[in-house]
Amino acid sequence: MTENTRISIRNLYKIFGDDPATALQAVQAGMGKAELLEKHNHVLGLQDINVDMKAGEVTVIMGLSGSGKSTLIRHLNRLIEPTAGSIQVDGEDVLGYDEERLRRLRREHMSMVFQKFALLPHRTVLENAGLALWVRGKEVKEFEEEANKWLARVGLEGNGNQYPHQLSGGMQQRVGIARALTSNSPIMLMDEAFSALDPLIRTDMQDLLLDLQQELKKTIVFITHDLDEALKLADHLVILKDGYVVQQGEPQEILLEPNDPYIVDFISDINRARVLRVRSVMEKTTRPLAQSAGQVTENTNLEEVIAKSQGATDLTYQVVREGAPVGVISMQAVVKALVPTHAAAREVR
Description:
This protein is α/β, with parallel strands linked by helices. Helices cover about 40% and strands about 25% of the residues. A six-stranded mixed β-sheet has the order 6-7-8-3-9-10, sandwiched between helices. It is globular, with a radius of gyration of 23 Å.
């Protein structure tokens, strides 16, 4: 575990059934999910998960329905108990916590934003936003200022006296985010937080989250089944299938070097020009380019570079970071990066 790792998961297994310990032995001996269900009538939820989540970053866990992503996030605050493995938060073994320390973890260190909003219908928007502080024993007048501050930050200034049923779905989810922020917890768990929203509202919520994260630097664990959302939000991307990690890493690297046919299928319909950044394709050098067609930043996406080139394929651009040269990128390299890649040669489960 590195110095800036906030959450560390090691050898985590979850098996649902009457005798998970016996089923675990079968899984560790090589039995897969389908065979375990057929022969032992047990469901393999998670299989040997090893993930480090860095402080101040967004770790996105993604996969199709049944892949284990929601099961995994619920292990972090022990809403689900593991069959085997370890979970450390800031170097402490969460699985060793007694009831009091576990309550403190959930109240003060980890907030959760749910897909279905989970607002209390009989409480006002203000009271819902300050719920975590109310649970800690504070009265409304004590957290009113803090709750109103975060309601304003998520675009709900002046809505504090309304009730959840008076708000749209997007506004209700903003209350959920304000509630997580009002709790002042360093870790935010977001389980399919935007998946119930209309596409345009969903994009607005993603942008809001990125804007807040740029300032607050929370440790966010975000669950999604949508690859576009994952690539937009993730600093670290973990892709699950049938309860195990198929591939994890920086999203740009996964897009350029998928290690499994499953990943290739996932990314086959992605607009690579919109997702890939110059930094992932450029030739790294601090040498100023004698002749260039102009400058682009390292975080510019390839779609913008193509537009800048106006279709010319013989151009080369200087890549800069805060005005200083960090690389060069040719239009030939841009075009080559847009060609879908096959799975890298690696042993597949």
